[in-house]
Amino acid sequence: MKLSFARKAGALYASAIFIGLNRAFTSLTMQLPEILIPATPVQVLLPDAAAALPLVCDSPHSGTDYPADFGYAVATADLRRCEDTHVHWLWDAVPQAGGTLVHATFPRSYIDPNRDVQDINPAMLADAWPGPTTPTARTLELGMGLVATHTPARQPIYARRLSAQEVAHRIEHYWRPYRQALGEVLEAASAQGPRWHLNLHSMPSNAYERLGRVAPGPLADVVLGDLNGRSCGSEFTGRVAEGFRQRGYTVAINDPYAGQDLLRQFGAPSRGHHSLQVEINRALYLDEHTRELLPRASCVREDIASLLQDVAAYVRHAGAAHPTPSSVAIAH
Ligand SMILES: [Zn+2]
């Protein structure tokens, strides 16, 4: 079953910021690129209700529908290096395993659903942002915040400064629908007890170089991130790592990627909310220049489908064995 979360009625998503911007910038609207409303910024694939498990997987960076109002000034091929291309295809057995799969349709270079909404560098804007901004050091240094200013190769994406109205539009019609859809399915998954969340990505084969670090050795096939233990119980992290290793993949934990904002937002292992980031090395399945699948990609997808059966068995067992403190309290 597939649901599309289209833009909901304006009142639901219109924040005070956006309303304020509309008032402040009405006179500028005619000078901007035509602003379009996306039909489906996020897709949600549900399992059969009878087999549904408290397992949610999300792919925030595999979207490839470039909005017409993007207005970038760099070669598309260079911009596409930001994508985790095909990741939701690699994991498309999630619903058959009993989980829910959420994925973005828009590219993360347009706006990144895995960044905090205040992670904006005001220097990229042509006018004042009408709210607080808290850009991270990485955003200021690499230009990869909520709205990226640079490609991974440090090329500027724009030949202009963006208007605050443009960024507000991207937040309200892409970032917020994604976060809301994911939040809703995670909330539903944890209604009866603990939940397990796999946050799905792929990483460039030169990940250390991109991060400006000296590689301590070969990049692993799979990097699991749990914010150094803060977003996921160690037992689940260990099970997923073992599942990949049993299938012949090398696995590293939290190095070089420990996780980002979606883990910070949704991971709370003390409450039974386990969020684990999974990064697949792109060299395993993708031609990193053309973004086309390699012949062996279907093997990776089959391995993941098999791994998902193990994950589902773990969730089925652990969900029954470990009720959350709140459900224990209700039982008493
Ligand atoms: Zn990613």
Structural account:
The structure is a single chain. 34% of the residues lie in helices and 13% in strands. It has 332 residues and is of the alpha/beta class. The chain has one domain: 3-Layer(aba) Sandwich (Aminopeptidase), CATH 3.40.630.40. Strands 1-2-4-3-5-8-6-7 form an eight-stranded mixed sheet, sandwiched between helices. Helix 9 links the parallel strand 6 and strand 7. Helix 2 packs antiparallel against helix 7 and helix 9 runs antiparallel to helix 11. The longest helix has 26 residues. The two termini are 37 Å apart. The site of zinc ion has 3 residues, from loops. The site of zinc ion (ZN) has 3 residues, from loops.
Helix proportion: 25-40%
Strand order of the largest sheet: 1-2-4-3-5-8-6-7
| Highest CATH level, the class | Alpha Beta
| CATH fold-level topology | Aminopeptidase
- Unreliable spans: 4-33, 324-332
CATH superfamily: Zn-dependent exopeptidases
Bound molecules: zinc ion
Distance between the termini: 37 Å
How many strand units?
A: 8
CATH architecture: 3-Layer(aba) Sandwich
Quick one: biggest sheet? Answer: 8 strands, mixed
Mean of residue pLDDT values: 88
Shape: globular
Proportion of residues in extended strands: 5-15%
The total of helices stands at: 12
By secondary-structure content and strand pairing, the structural class works out as alpha/beta
